[in-house]
Predict the structure.
Amino acid sequence: METLNLKIPRFRGASFFPDDILEYYQRTDRALIAAVTEMYAMGTSTRKV
């Protein structure tokens, strides 16, 4: 079999994903979890949640 060499771009000193985008979605995730927890605590059925 023949060997195939691929050139894969690398990021030096930087992350692949921008941190600002992840921070935005983490806030949204926390808000969603808080809303679902509050609905469950108030007696909303899990089917309606």
Notes: The CA atoms of residues 1 and 43 lie 64 Å apart. Residues 16-49 form one domain. The longest helix spans residues 19-41. The radius of gyration is 22 Å.
